[in-house]
## 1
Amino acid sequence: MTEVQRFTEHALSDWMKEEGPDSDIVISTRIRIARNVGAYPFPMLASNQQSQEVLDRVRSLMDNDELETISHFTLLPMSELGELQRRVLVEKHLISPALANESRNGAVILSDNESISIMVNEEDHLRIQCLCPGFQIKEAWDLANQIDDVFEVHLDYAFDEKRGYMTSCPTNVGTGIRASVMIHLPALVLTQQINRILSAITQVGLAVRGLYGEGSEALGNLFQISNQITLGQSEEEIIDNLHSVVRQIIEHERAARLKLSMENRAKLLDRVSRSFGILSYAAIMDSKEAAQRLSDVRLGIDLGFIKKVPSQVLNELLVMTQPGFLQQLAGEKLSSEERDIRRAQLIRDKMSESDEVR
């Protein structure tokens, strides 16, 4: 198996196999830090030679002893990856669509368990991303900060005394930090409280996006909540604000789940059971329906209605049922209908395996 295959042939990253705090509601926590090397133009204005020099400087740090104490890392140049391999990395949240499609001398540096992803020559020279299972925002920040400190010793970052770290996008100027959680809120959707909650979130300086960030749809009742402000607040203030708001959202979702299970238990059980049955036997399924049915089953697992499907299988299916991964498994490009047929078959097989295990 090549290094590229090691990161693209498995849907479930090792870090996703671990249980984290509040993992019944918060799927994952992410910290992303944007940085640029002061001696070079930002990637969108850099020449091919300049972006190559940035990549070479970053590559030279791969054997740094301090980085090795954190993890072993592998550098994957985008030029050496096929279209489907890049798409799979996007679906696993390891690189951005921008790095996959538009970067010059772009690359990604991945830790062995894929919890750390460092994008090179994306919108900024460096985007350091750390992922943790469940609600672990402070732990993710500590890890990202360690890596950032190592790079800052060897790279002269673009920094202004008044404005902070300089970035390609003005919304990242200042701390350059984007903290986010991927959160599952089916009960708030079913009880029609979600719009009120999301409206309140945006009023306190946070952004709400879909599964794959800006411009994506909130499929399967999964929402990405992150800070919008990076200038005028310290990293700790940004993290504390997000932590406080997400903690309140978790409590609202738990209260809504309790209300549903007490007041509408029969209807909820019917909904969960129908989705479980459809996932187990359907012959064709598009990505939108798959996301919604998987959301219902995940809620059923969390409420104790379903005991024979581990939640880890649902995490895996979130990635495996995406277009890029389906086509990679097939070894060829597929039409929309062919993907829908293979998606249904893949889900049936996984549900059957879970049934046998339990």
## 2
Amino acid sequence: MAGTKDAVTYESIMRDIKARKFSPIYILMGEESYFIDKICTALMESILPEDEREFNQFVVFGSDVTAGQVALMSRELPMMSEYKVIVVKEAQNLKNTDDLEKYFDHPSPQTILIYCHKHGTIDKRKKFLTKAQPNALIFDSAKLSEKSLPGFVESYLKLRQVTIEPKTAIVIAESIGQDLNRLTSELDKLCIAIPETDRRVTPELVEESIGISKEYNAFELRNAIISRDVVKVNRIINYFDKNPKSGGVFRLLPTLFGYFQNLMVAWYAPDRNSQKALADHLELRSEWGAKEYMAGMRNFSALKTMQIISKIREVDEKIKGLDNPNTTSGDLMKELVFFILH
């Protein structure tokens, strides 16, 4: 199974592992460590029976070994086992890879080499990937976009026979953000807390188990801004400002930026008056999501939207301490929402 024949996805790799269809070389790379770790763990738990792992499964770190040592280990025969498994973690720290590139030309059929390169991708122009391609499965673990997170929440829970309303999935995704390790940890808490008689995630359960208020969250702030509900907007800003456990007002900025960035795109859609066409143009998961952008275009002109995006960037820099001697985060957010609504 080579990495260049078919589209390689996390799901396709996990299916093949379950079916015991293994590649002699796995190159797992990218910005999203969650998928790299999940694939690596699944391979380590599936390739060898537990009683064969002590003598045939080895984990090394890129900063502790050379490429020559990895190649030598990979060429050695397994001990009374079908396979030998070599796992290179933090492989981005491995220096000269020439000896490993030579190994790629003639990999051992009895070794499965798992190469975990985190925090970025390997330059596709380099010889390393070119040499690996004929015999390797190459997976680029990209960060999920913010708009993909609610779908990830729904899918993750569905695998555990748990259902969730789309709005609640959006609230969780927007409140926790793109750290999938943290996100799945919080979802696991929900799965433990949910009663066996009703496998459904409710806003009340989310508030009770992981502390995301059903009234005070980024999703509700966005809706209040779209509908120009000044009282509700300020109530949510004050809640985040006065409750450190909420993560602070800084947690609200990505949601606001994402919305107005999409709103700018919506203004230039070929058919912005059609809910379906707009949803397709914005690559939304459902037509339902287009309603808030159609409402946004009624309340914010294209020029105002551009000015809001610029203001959000300015506030983001000031909250991070750039060119801001003493204005608090709460005051900066109040200044931002005043600018948005007036």
## 3
Amino acid sequence: MKNCLRDARLAKGLSQAELADRMDVSRQTINAVEADKYDPSLPLAYKLAAFFEMPVESLFLNPFRP
């Protein structure tokens, strides 16, 4: 799933490890999500969106929407 997680993370000045610590996941999970190699669980997607204070639909792009 396409996303703008990397841009949001960098805008806050966070490393992948720092974001992972705050989300209670591994750095590898954040890396995989940013690289579009792993789709986060719905709870993690909402937790990330809340952390970045943006709608989940803005952080993660719906692949089924034209």
